[in-house]
């Protein structure tokens, strides 16, 4: 409403459509016929654009404003006509709109209000070049609004280049995990995750009363898990990025109305979905970024409600778990024998639980061939996912390699008295290490070697104990006091450096002196907390904290993330190679490469066919940039201006018909006689015939011209007089 450029982060269903339509209607107020288009709204899909048009018509019903819909896949001739009607509001998809701009050579200087709806999806679908070219053609004095569920880095770069002094507004974005959220972490093998998930859905989650969202890596995992849950008689719905929009809407509606209690999603598909009454979140694949974890679990335990987050962690995902706890400033609570089911406990899964569900899955794979084939596809997709997944921090990888997970107890959620005693006995048998060596057993017990080993053990016991204590200190994850919630990337890097500092030797600690009463530190003890809770003044700092990139959920989108680079001799650096990026493209005045198909003769052909002249006046005050179609009613056709070129007649006259027939006859005669030698007599006869036909033709012309035989006789008499 204040006319500022805005970048707003809001989930789907939070009312963002009305948030940009109401200020737009307030600014445009009423229709001005000769002003051209004044508002431009970009949508990533046809369905969203049509929905926006519907809301626009409902809100602007009494304003007289006219809106036009420009979508890919529709007839471009109808869109030419819509632009000629000079609408006030244009709702379009970027590709087709840029096609019209280039084809019709439109000027966009009258645009004063621009909206990028679902901006993250616009860039995800590859519209960056089209949006950049349109932005370069727009006037500088305009108001730009970008609405997005997330804030990828490519969107931040686009805003920095094309939007002046943007204001970042974050709606319903959780910067911290809710206090009412209870997290649980289960250590298991990658192949056992499906069995653990089935156990949780059957025995831990209440499917009739609670809503649960399961996050998976790729769309192939979603399809495989859907088939598994159907075999287990567990109703569920699913969504992924390439799913049809109608099926996507139906599946989300089933979940919201509690017809099904489980929703299988990928990160890129679940972005922007707002489900207010969510109870549980299950991370089948642990998120590779702490912000992504907060983004997932931030959907539950809102508005005073309680919720739970379950995470299945494979051995290769443990460094990401450590990164998460360093980001949150918490320590990892590994399960202990007498520990209760508390928040943040990390434990293992009993083998008996895994075996029961694994046997059931194995029988299904043997019985159903389609399920077995989907398992193979999901495994291949997981290998592609691992290639595109960013690596954890090197420090977390180093520390987790040294940690011994064999000492971690079973998670308290699986506690059973009989099962607990059984596992304790098995653990003791597994971890049993005798104190005696080979030199102290059997007949060697009374030899001198036995006495030497006893003396050695007695002398080295102190060093063995000290080494065990040091290894235990290295394995334990220390709790950090600084909560880096909204800090920028530099702060996060410095925080990781603080973690990697080696332990100060004891002799240096004794020599160090600090007077607690008079010593002044160079920063406050609450420095990171104050900075995290403070409001940053610049857009760059806010955007750096809000940036969150997602990996694709299928092979095509994963390959887009791979930056294939080649050496550029002119720039003297590696640049990205997009496989014939400039092939079949043309360079615009602003330097952006667009497809050559955008510039064709479709518009000129449409103009010639409909006899419509597209006017663009030099005076922008009198005539809009989109021109004006000269639409003249039928009863005023007499005042229509005559064009220099008369319209082409569709009906032929008698002269034109006779001329065409005679031409056809001459052509046929020529084809018959061109390979034959003709005598002079025949040539003379042919000449006489031709002259006779020409004479008849002249007579017909004179008859049609004067209309009767009387005029013909008068004409012949006057001709004879002239000859005399």
UniProtKB/TrEMBL annotation:
Compositional bias segments (type: Basic and acidic residues): 638-672, 679-691
Enzyme class name: hydrolase
GO-annotated molecular function: ATP binding; hydrolase activity; RNA binding; RNA helicase activity
UniProt-annotated stretches for the region Disordered: 614-724
Signal peptide boundaries: none
Annotated ranges, domain Helicase ATP-binding: 1-169
Substrates-to-products reaction catalysed: ATP + H2O = ADP + phosphate + H(+)
Residue ranges, compositional bias (Polar residues): 700-724
Occurrences of domain Helicase C-terminal (ranges): 199-343
Keywords: ATP-binding, Helicase, Hydrolase, Nucleotide-binding, RNA-binding
Signal among keywords: no
InterPro entries documented for this protein: DBP10_C, DEAD/DEAH_box_helicase_dom, DEAD_box_RNA_helicase, Helicase_ATP-bd, Helicase_C-like, P-loop_NTPase, RNA-helicase_DEAD-box_CS
Homology family: Belongs to the DEAD box helicase family. DDX54/DBP10 subfamily.
Annotated protein name in UniProt: RNA helicase
Species of the source: Larinioides sclopetarius
